[in-house]
UniProtKB/TrEMBL annotation:
Pfam families: Pantoate_transf. GO terms for biological process: pantothenate biosynthetic process. This is 3-methyl-2-oxobutanoate hydroxymethyltransferase. GO terms for cellular component: cytoplasm.
Length: 272
């Protein structure tokens, strides 16, 4: 017997595929906690990504490498509790899938069982083929991630645009075709030339989601703290800021401090 928690029509991999086929762009944002997830889900975001960027924006690390599987599961389970409609993808953290496909399967199963997420995302192409195959064989939807893959930052050395040279572009196309052939339901392309992203989106039948990959892909993803302007320092060319929450929150907190110091807060009306 199945138990239905709500009548809302949930986003599925099948629906995402249909969206590509009918030319409807897919909206995706990161989320790391319950309260934010409820807002993003109610606002109509199609896919919520519990990104390992939590390592940067939630924990203050310089890279995504330190975040652990347990920490990702904690963030993901909080997000899942806030969602009615969106499809929730959980990043597999660095060290949980590279090199050993049995370990990769164990990690993916832990994510699915313990967080309630709907799919996982892995960075890389041919080099993680066995892990992707093994996870898919367990019935877990897999999203790929190519181009700038932040878990390999120490190999790249910088966060600049990837695949500008033909050899790297060719390898990226081959990796994308391989991930599709293995059965991935979608691929994220990060920080690559717009024309290359266009070629991939045209050649592949699965949805291609871009971040810094231009407009000719099937959907867009941004880190929610960046697009809401919570984080002021990060200003890459591809980022559009939809709010200045840093200023709004700073003003609100400064007013609170002022009111506490001046004993304006709490008033008689705000007391029992
Ligand atoms: O972790 C993350 O936020 C991501 C996006 C940048 C795609 O992988």
């Amino acid at each position: 017997m199945s138990v239905h928690k709500s009548d809302v029509k949930k986003v599925t991999t099948h629906q995402l595929q249909n969206m590509k086929e009918r030319g409807e762009k897919i909206s995706m944002l990161t989320a790391y906690d319950y309260s934010m997830a409820t807002i993003l889900d109610a606002a109509g975001v199609d896919v919520l990504l519990v990104g390992d960027s939590a390592s940067n924006v939630m924990a203050g690390h310089e890279t995504t490498l330190p975040i652990t599987l347990d920490q990702m599961i904690y963030h993901a389970s909080s997000v899942v509790r806030g969602v009615n409609r969106a499809f929730v993808v959980v990043d597999m953290p660095f060290g949980s899938y590279q090199g050993n496909s049995s370990e990769a399967l164990r990690s993916a199963i832990r994510i699915m069982k313990e967080s309630g997420g709907h799919g996982v995302k892995l960075e890389g192409g041919a080099e993680i083929k066995e892990s992707v195959t093994r996870i898919l064989s367990a019935g877990v939807p897999v999203m790929g991630h190519l181009g700038l893959t932040p878990q390999s930052i120490y190999k790249f050395g910088t966060y600049t645009v990837r695949a500008k040279e033909e050899a790297e572009a060719q390898k990226l196309i081959e990796d994308a075709l391989l991930l599709q052939e293995l059965g991935c339901f979608s691929i994220v392309l990060e920080k690559i030339p717009s024309e290359l992203a266009k070629r991939v989106a045209e050649q592949l039948h699965i949805p291609i989601i871009g971040i810094g990959a231009g407009p000719h892909v099937d959907g867009q993803v941004l880190v929610v703290h960046d697009m809401l302007g919570i984080n002021k320092e990060f200003k890459p060319r591809f980022l559009r800021r939809y709010a200045d929450l840093h200023t709004i929150m700073t003003d609100a907190v400064q007013n609170y401090v002022k009111d506490v110091k001046s004993q304006d807060f709490p008033s008689e009306k705000e007391a029992y």
